[in-house]
Structures are given as C-alpha cells and as structure tokens.
Amino acid sequence: MKVILFLLFVGFTALAQNTYNLIPLPKELTPAEGQFVIKKSTSIGYSHADFAPVASLLAEHIQHASTFPISAKVSTAATIQFSQNNSLPEEAYTLQVSSKKISIQAKTGKGAFYALQTLLQLMPAQIYAGTQITGAISIPNVNIKDEPRFSYRGLMLDVGRYYFPVESVKRFIDLMAVYKMNTFHWHLTEDQGWRIEIKKYPLLTSISSVRKESMLGHYRDQKYDGKPHGGFYTQEQVKDIVAYATSKYIQVIPEIEMPGHSTAVLAAYPQFGSNGDKILQVKTKWGVAEDVLFPREETFEFLENVLTEVMALFPGQYIHIGGDECPKTQWKESRFCQDLIKKLGLKDEHELQSYFIRRIDKFVTSKGKKLLGWDEILEGGLSPNAMVMSWRGTKGGVEAAKQNHDVVMSPNSYFYLDYYQADPKTEPIAIGGNLTLSKCYSFEPNLPELTAEEAKHVVGIQANVWTEYISNIAYAEYMTYPRALALSEVSWSTKESKNYTDFKKRLTGHLPSMDAMKINYSKAFLSQP
Length: 529
Ligand code: ACM
Hints:
- Helices cover 35% and strands 19% of the residues.
- The protein is built from 18 helices and 21 strands.
- The strands form five sheets. An eight-stranded parallel beta barrel has the order 8-9-16-17-18-19-20-21, surrounded by seven helices. A seven-stranded mixed beta sheet has the order 1-7-5-6-4-2-3. Strands 10-11 form a two-stranded antiparallel sheet.
C-alpha cells in the first residue's frame, strides 16, 4: 500500500508542470520537474557572514509560515545553503532548487538578497502574508542564473506635495526590494513643502514644512480643502530610513531642489529670492512657481550649509539638486541678476542658471559626492562625474551620454506614475496623461541614437511618483503598482527576453503574492491589450 501511494505521489509530481511567475524575469531559467518541500528537517546554512542577515530573513519567513523552529546557522551542508562564489558580479546570484536541496550562490549579501527575493516568489503566495500556511511550503525545482541588465533601478517618491509618514516611506522601500529595485530617489523639497530637518535653518521646518491648505480636485477646479498640511523628517528619522533602505540593499538619493521649486524656502527666508521684503507663503497651488532662488552669495552660503547637513545624512555618492523648471522672469527683471550676468560675461538668464548649477556642482564635487539633476542641468556644462536624469523625454539623456555623462532615463511619457493608467472616467483623480502598463513596459533604454560606447553611460531607468494628486500610501501604491513592475523588469531582465504577453501572464500568476502583501495595485491592465 505504502509503495502504491509512493508511486502515485511520484507520478503526480512528475506530471505537475512547474510554473515560474517571476518578476523581474531572471537572465537564465532552466525549468525542472518536481519540487523541494520544506519540512521539519529542513536546515538553512550560510558559509560567510555576509549572508547571515539574508539567511535569517528566509528563516523568519519560514517560521511565520510553518510550525518548524527553523533558524539560520553557519554551515556548508544545510538543505538550503547559501555559499560564496567570488566569480559572480556583485548583484548576481545562482539559485538551484532540486527535490533534495536548495543551493544559492552569490559574491555578496546583495546577490544573496536578490536570490532570496526570487526564492520567495517561487513559494506559495501566502509566504508574504506572514501567517501560517495551510498545506506544504513547496518550491518548484529550477535552475536560475541571474544578474541585472542595469545597475540603476529606481523609483522616486515626491514627499514635498504630500508628506508621507516614516512608516509609509518604509513600506514604499519594502516593495521596491521585493522586485530588486535598488535606488530610492527621495524628493524632499518643493514649493508646497520642505520636508527635511536642517539644524542650521530651523524655519525650514517651522515655516517651510507647512502650507495653509491643499488643492481639491483638478487644478482647473481651483478648489481648496481649507486644512493645513505639513510634516517633515527629523535627521534621526532620515538616518533610520537610510539604514532601513540599506538593509534592503537600496541606496537613497536625496533631492534638494534649486533654484526653482523653492517657494517654501522663500516663505521662511525671503532674502534668498527676488526681494527680501516680499511676503511669500508656502504654495498651495500646484504647478511651476515664478518665485525662485537668486544667485546671491548669501543664497550659495545657505545652500552649501544645507547640503553639508544633507550629505552627512546620506552615505550614497549622489546628491540630486533638482535644477528643473526654473522660470527666468524674476531674474530678467532684477537689476542684481542683470548686473551679475554682465559681471560674469554671461549671455542671458539661461547661462545664469548654468552658473548657479556649476557652483553647486563644484561644491558637491569638492565634498567627494556626485551631482545629479534633471536634464535642464545639462545646459551649461557640468563636472565630468555629474549624472543627468532625463525626464523631458530621452533627448536630454541622449545629449548627456554623448557628452560622456552617466544618465538615468526617466522619460515622462513612459515613467511618470502620476499619469492615468486607464480611462480617466474609470479612475480616481490623477494629474492627466495616459500611461498604461504596456506603454511603461515598452520603453527600451538602449536608444538607436547612441553608439555602443555612448549607450554604456545609460546606467538605468527610474519611474517617478509625483504626488500632487496622491495624498497617502494606499493611493501611491495604486499608481505605482503594477507599473513599477514594468520598470523592474525593463531595468533587470535582458533586452532579448522582453515580451509583454509573457510579462502579463507572469504578473497575472503573481497577483496572489501581491494580494498577500496587501499591495493596493491597479487591475486596469487585466482588461487592456
Ligand atoms: C519634473 O517633472 N519637473 C522633473
């Protein structure tokens, strides 16, 4: 009887067709029959201290999902074994699942962390719920060799338009990690709110972080909610978030906007703008503001002091200084600016903006950091190590790459996640636009305008969550997912493997996992071609 049951069992597993609903798609995946089933006797081992946190994370997931008192230990012969392989690149890993053993190899904890994400995606969806699973925790056999196509895989969250509490920011980071994104661009300052504590300038938090009210409905409606909105992150909270992201192998890039998008600064420190006597309020309207920072010596001193505090909080190499959408009207009308243009031998206000950015660039570079800015910063010449984020399409990015600058492609028509993802009639309010999941997925970073050599400067891609119309994390998730998964796959998986039909099929199969994570994703893609 036992033998018959055994044969039935073997026969059944042999017939079972394994499916692998992985996002992003690994570089090489060889399917296999059968599965590894987690049992009481399953052990988790790691050969190298770098892998200890990742091995422990796996143990935690299994503890929550099972009744097994499993823990991670130093070992070379566990049934789930993490081993070091120095021949692999930093972000690469291999994952072999057979019925007897799971073997993970990586060079560093980072590669092992990505292996863990893949392994979790192969488990029953409920593994993400953190509660006990009814039935076996089984993992389909497979042989995976994986590494990313691009080194920069980013999402931006705008906390200037709406403040997102620390827990919401961590949730945003959590989900990025699941899909192997590695850069969190934190847009911290805006016309409508300054969100980071700067000890030297306390008015930035007491005044600049609060606006009187917020817009309700579309801009054209000109309605307001009548409720003050504010919030900021203390330096301790910033450190906590940076450490949290680092534990998930995500670098955090802070953005401090200049010289435009700075009305909140001017509300507290009007002396850095057109006229020290002008009373300005933190903006309540969305859009591009005419009030901008002036290239005065006092302004540079202020910005350098701010950046000095910011750089001490963010260990990463990049500091984003905005640089976009700076109207020149006030500079045109200002005697001070016109005199400065003459004195510096500049042609016009655009060259004055370049002068502004170049000075900040020099300062940032002198501190051993690298400048990053929106593509407008390209207009006046930059340090060789400055990086450009191309948002007005890809033209700025192409130009930057041709000038030997590294580039992150973040074209608005593909990666502005504040755009509608389906017919506006069926959707909650958004800024406008039309950006379906398939459109996001169709972006190809290897642009025909670039030679192979120039294309090496395209280090990756980023999607941006601007929040004029997004006041909380649940709605942010709705706008971000699943479109961020297109970003994840386009940045990680090979160009040759790109196939929207296959992506959509895997995504559909992966939805139970997203449900278990309680991601408030949009289902619009299911009824779209
Ligand atoms: C931008 O959307 N102004 C970068």
